[in-house]
Design goal:
Pfam families: TPP_enzyme_C (PF02775), TPP_enzyme_N (PF02776)
Largest sheet: 6 strands, parallel
CATH class of the largest domain: Alpha Beta
GO molecular function, one term: 2-succinyl-5-enolpyruvyl-6-hydroxy-3-cyclohexene-1-carboxylic-acid synthase activity
CATH architecture of the largest domain: 3-Layer(aba) Sandwich
Catalytic activity: isochorismate + 2-oxoglutarate + H(+) = 5-enolpyruvoyl-6-hydroxy-2-succinyl-cyclohex-3-ene-1-carboxylate + CO2
InterPro entries: MenaQ_synth_MenD (IPR004433), THDP-binding (IPR029061), Thiamin_PyroP_enz_TPP-bd_dom (IPR012001), TPP_enzyme_TPP-bd (IPR011766)
Number of helices: 22
Number of domains: 3
EC number: 2.2.1.9
Length: 580
């Protein structure tokens, strides 16, 4: 029987998955549950050593001989500090030493309780990764615990090995052993251990993809053509597989998957036919929160294609495979994924490749139909005068214009509207999704670019970053489309927030500020619009006016109408013919 501590059972199961065969264990009560599990599992040899300093060196010696990650397990408090000499030696000898330390619950650290000290960062300089496991009470916390153990063991064994620390807080009672079996835990696996993309990696990835009946490829934010990123043809990829990609992904055209996912969420009876059974994830974040949430709920196994496999992310909570591929090689990898379609003659006899082709085709066609209906809805929907109408008209004009325009969308509502209407690459600070700095980033971009650069930005983001204009650097190629509805409009879209008496004042930061004075003091040409006609004329002026000074168009709208207009757009799913 195993301990009833779920974090310890997750840890034990994953130690087995990652091939640990030996553990040096030190005496103590707080780590008793860990030592018990290590001994109980039957496939890990336990070696009892009393002195923690000596024990850690014992574990390093075992690892040097077996060439396997090896555990040293200690109790809480200064016991962990005693492992430091061996950990430092392991760091410089590149030995996969797994230090597992039991810990007191966080609330008792620095509270004059026995054997307590801040443990998670105690060895930081000499470990590649340090994690502190939660004691799971929810499925999300359970995933988090699994992910942290996987990340630590992955870091310890990735290419050139290194020591890691796994800190495990354990609450009392400590000695209940009534769990019959260890949980079956998912682990991260590299499809190939090579540092660069190889034919072997491609072949294994192809086999994983072709075994799926409902594969999906997600492309998150990517650099347009800089920082070593080689642009690949998303449109060609989407001819053969379902692809979720936003304007931030260099998709070249809007793929209305956010709207489609919202539709499936509203009609769960339809969802099974559209649910993937294998996901390839490329790039960074998605703007669509609804899509991230829905994909996590599917729990479809996912494969992360990344240039930095040491710091692999698990955005869908279902990571199984990791593929190393530099950004520069993405344009080479993508055609290989649909090689069976472009070079059918070479794959005629490949039974694995074609076994699930009928299911893949049905899945692709159902998604194409749904996405097409939403694309038609986006084209046909005529929003009343609102921020949505502003962005739709702006995108229409730049699509028709012969002038080269770089569009920089700020966070919150602005970039979400871009995901509905932009059929080109969109620049946006989505790394941590903060409102600060959007205007400054666009202004900085414009300094080293000869084309027109337009920043589409909400009022709070603009006023927060107004100092971007407080200099003599920016010139006439910077244009600003300011969407001013006198508050943080995105908060109007959050369910039930309106019930709070401080929703507008404290949360939404309502105000009566305009940009006219800011423009006057910073030598920025100012245009204002209060209705549809003025807005359309203003956007035309914004894109065509000549001069050496930046130009700002401030479009005033009503926040309630903005929210209702967007809400009516998404309710368009009721008129779609999406059936099982």
């Amino acid at each position: 029987m195993y301990s009833n501590k779920e974090n310890i059972n997750i840890l034990t199961s994953l130690l087995l998955e990652w091939g640990v065969t030996d553990a040096v264990v030190c005496p103590g009560s707080r780590n008793a549950a860990i030592v018990h599990n290590l001994n109980e599992c039957g496939t890990i040899r336990c070696h009892p050593i009393t002195d923690e300093r000596s024990a850690a060196f014992y574990a390093m010696g075992i690892a040097l001989n077996t060439k396997r990650p090896t555990v040293v397990c200690v109790t809480s408090g200064s016991a962990l500090l005693n492992t430091a000499p061996a950990v430092a030696e392991a760091y410089y000898q590149h030995v996969p030493l797994i230090v597992i330390a039991a810990d007191r619950p966080q609330q008792w650290i620095d509270q004059l309780d026995g054997q307590t000290l801040p443990q998670p960062d105690a060895l930081n300089r000499f470990v590649r990764r340090s994690v502190s496991l939660p004691e799971p009470r929810t499925e999300e916390e359970r995933w988090y615990c699994n992910r942290l153990v996987n990340e630590a063991l992955h870091a310890a064994t990735f290419r050139q090995p290194a020591p890691v620390l796994i800190n495990a807080p354990i609450t009392e009672p400590l000695f209940t052993f009534d769990v019959a079996e260890l949980p079956k835990e998912r682990r991260f696996r590299m499809l190939d251990s090579e540092a660069a993309l190889t034919n072997t990696t491609v072949e294994v990835l192809q086999q994983e993809l072709y075994q799926a009946k409902r594969p999906l490829i997600v492309v998150g934010q990517m650099a347009a053509d800089s920082f070593g990123c080689s642009v690949f043809d998303i449109n060609e990829l989407s001819k053969h597989f379902v692809v979720f990609a936003e304007p931030l992904s260099n998709s070249g055209e809007t793929i209305h998957f956010d709207e489609a996912v919202r539709h499936l969420t509203a009609h769960p009876e339809l969802s099974p036919d559209y649910t993937p059974d294998y996901i390839i994830y490329i790039g960074d974040t998605l703007v669509s929160k609804a899509t991230r949430r829905w994909l996590r709920q599917t729990q479809a196994p996912s494969c992360l294609i990344t240039a930095d496999p040491l710091h692999a992310s698990d955005p869908l909570m279902s990571l199984r495979h990791i593929v190393t591929c530099s950004n520069a090689n993405l344009a080479l990898l993508m055609p290989m994924l649909y090689d069976i379609y472009t070079h059918r003659d070479l794959h005629t006899d490949d039974e694995v490749a074609w076994r699930n082709e009928e299911s893949r085709t049905m899945f692709l066609n159902k998604w194409k139909s749904l996405l097409s209906q939403w694309a038609n809805h986006a084209t046909a929907y005529e929003p009343e005068y609102s921020q949505m109408a502003v962005v739709k008209y702006f995108e229409k004009l730049i699509e028709e214009s012969a002038v080269c325009v770089n569009t920089h969308y700020a966070n919150s509502t602005a970039v979400r509207l871009a995901c509905i209407y932009a059929n080109h690459y969109v620049w946006c600070n989505r790394g941590v999704n903060g409102i600060e700095g959007s205007l400054s980033t666009a202004a900085g971009f414009s300094l080293t670019d000869h084309d027109l650069n337009v920043c589409i930005i909400g009022d709070l983001s603009f006023f927060y970053d107004q100092n971007a204009l407080w200099n003599n650097c920016v010139g006439g190629n910077l244009r600003i489309l300011l969407l001013n509805n006198s508050c943080g409009g995105i908060f109007k879209q959050l369910p039930n927030l309106h019930r709070s008496p401080v929703a507008d004042t404290f949360v939404g930061a309502s105000h009566t500020t305009t940009a006219q004075g800011i423009c006057a003091q910073n030598n920025v040409e100012y245009i204002a619009a209060h209705n549809q006609e003025e807005m359309q004329h203003g956007i035309s002026e914004l894109l065509t006016r000549k001069g050496n000074s930046p130009v700002l168009l401030e479009v005033f709208t009503d926040a309630d109408i903005d929210a209702k207009t967007l809400s009516r757009y998404f309710r368009g799913c009721s008129c779609l013919n999406c059936t099982k």
